[in-house]
Automatic annotation (TrEMBL), chains A, B:
<dbReference type="InterPro" id="IPR018490">
    <property type="entry name" value="cNMP-bd_dom_sf"/>
</dbReference>
<dbReference type="Pfam" id="PF13545">
    <property type="entry name" value="HTH_Crp_2"/>
</dbReference>
<dbReference type="GO" id="GO:0003677">
    <property type="term" value="F:DNA binding"/>
</dbReference>
<keyword id="KW-0805">Transcription regulation</keyword>
<keyword id="KW-0238">DNA-binding</keyword>
<feature type="domain" description="Cyclic nucleotide-binding">
    <location>
        <begin position="24"/>
        <end position="146"/>
    </location>
</feature>
<dbReference type="GO" id="GO:0006355">
    <property type="term" value="P:regulation of DNA-templated transcription"/>
</dbReference>
<dbReference type="Pfam" id="PF00027">
    <property type="entry name" value="cNMP_binding"/>
</dbReference>
<protein>
    <submittedName>
        <fullName>CRP/FNR family transcriptional regulator</fullName>
    </submittedName>
</protein>
<dbReference type="InterPro" id="IPR036390">
    <property type="entry name" value="WH_DNA-bd_sf"/>
</dbReference>
<dbReference type="InterPro" id="IPR036388">
    <property type="entry name" value="WH-like_DNA-bd_sf"/>
</dbReference>
<feature type="domain" description="HTH crp-type">
    <location>
        <begin position="160"/>
        <end position="226"/>
    </location>
</feature>
<dbReference type="InterPro" id="IPR014710">
    <property type="entry name" value="RmlC-like_jellyroll"/>
</dbReference>
<keyword id="KW-0804">Transcription</keyword>
<dbReference type="InterPro" id="IPR012318">
    <property type="entry name" value="HTH_CRP"/>
</dbReference>
<dbReference type="InterPro" id="IPR000595">
    <property type="entry name" value="cNMP-bd_dom"/>
</dbReference>
Length: 232, 232
């Protein structure tokens, strides 16, 4: 009995939380809400673990309670390109793309920090989107927003010269990390900026020569943020 | 009177045509249909002319009656990357992106062949999408489809080595043109594949050396389609 009451209380909390993520919540019928609630799962992912791999398992819609996720694509030979990141309060619908026939590409998602998520199974959304135009519209609208994120990233990669891109990356990371030092390897920077490690090392060396940064093992210390910003 | 009747007849034809492009047509009220009809314009663009430039003028939703359009993005220094092409029967909603706040990037559109289009002014769709969830959903769903096209293109550019990309391009163009000869310059190939002309010329020369193609001024003749295909 006590357990049942606890379950009910948890159910109520989950419903409240889902309502805060989904703007179409009030357009749903009672049974549709109940259906989503009963298929929404709280889960935790440790930093560095895999959250979603479309080819193997379609995790469904992701709601980020806390932490940080990285969404990326990967080439056959293992190079990857970061499309965008997800932070607390964000939603990811592309991780449920297995049920959207319009989306024909695969993404991967890693936890970059210890993360707490709610995931809603994709098959639930498949039937919900068929029944309820507001739910369907929410998903496509979210997709359109991600399209813009991805286009921005692609333009960075395809059109910006790499000194600009590296400067943008370092400044963005500093803004997130605080302070002047980034604990990051050249390999990681290459991964995140979609370049080769050699290119990153060469450009960092060039930046060091210019007095913009100081490089040491696993660390990049920014010495002249103002001039680095001018590069962007 | 005669003129009025002709106008009415044209109006009826236009309504029929719009209904065939827009799956949400039957979900509209009479006045909404009339509103779209009265703001839908038939127009012709000659090969090589500009159809849409988001920064200068947002042309609105494009329906392609006949011809061929190229949708692309452009860097500040004038390099461009083809995102996708539009053929007879296709719709483009990104050319109305000025009214979608979720879409924050600009595209350009050229007529690659003499083209006959219907365009529907973006402000009409802005209010329609606010009033009618089915119209809104159509637009975002179309956007999601284009997202997939663009991701495919980006993966080609970012992940495939250029020999593969060039082979894919030549085979795709052959399929459209028929026969074995493409009337295209190295400059044009570079533009369409998002590479430098020098890179294209070098790779074509390499293909020629391999007996895959024969190059002459403004022309690429494919000699060994089977082996070219194997490259892809």
């Amino acid at each position: 009995m006590a357990q049942e009451e606890t379950d009910k209380a948890i159910g109520k909390d989950m419903e409240k939380e889902l309502a805060s993520y989904f703007p179409f919540w009030e357009k749903l019928e009672e049974r549709q809400r109940a259906d989503i609630c009963s298929h929404a799962v709280s889960s935790r992912y440790s930093k560095g673990t895999f959250v979603h791999n479309a080819a193997e398992e379609c995790v469904g819609i992701i709601l980020v309670r806390s932490g940080q996720l990285r969404v990326y694509i990967q080439s056959e030979d293992g190079r990857d390109i970061t499309l965008y990141r997800l932070f607390s309060g964000d939603t990811c619908v592309l991780s449920a793309s297995c049920f959207m026939e319009e989306i024909t590409f695969d993404i991967l998602i890693d936890a970059e920090e210890d993360s707490s998520l709610i995931t809603v199974r994709p098959d639930i959304f498949r039937s919900l989107a068929k029944e309820n135009i507001y739910a369907e519209n929410y998903i496509y609208k979210q997709t359109a927003e991600r399209f813009s994120d991805v286009m921005w990233t692609m333009q960075q990669i395809l059109f910006m010269s790499f000194d600009k891109r590296l400067a943008v990356f370092l400044i963005d990371e500093l803004a997130k990390a605080g302070g002047d030092t980034l604990y990051i390897t050249h390999d990681q920077i290459a991964k995140y900026t979609g370049s080769a490690r050699e290119v990153v090392s060469r450009m960092l060396k060039y930046f060091e020569g210019e007095g913009l940064v100081k490089i040491s093992r696993g660390k990049v210390c920014v010495l002249d943020r103002k001039r680095l910003k001018e590069l962007t």
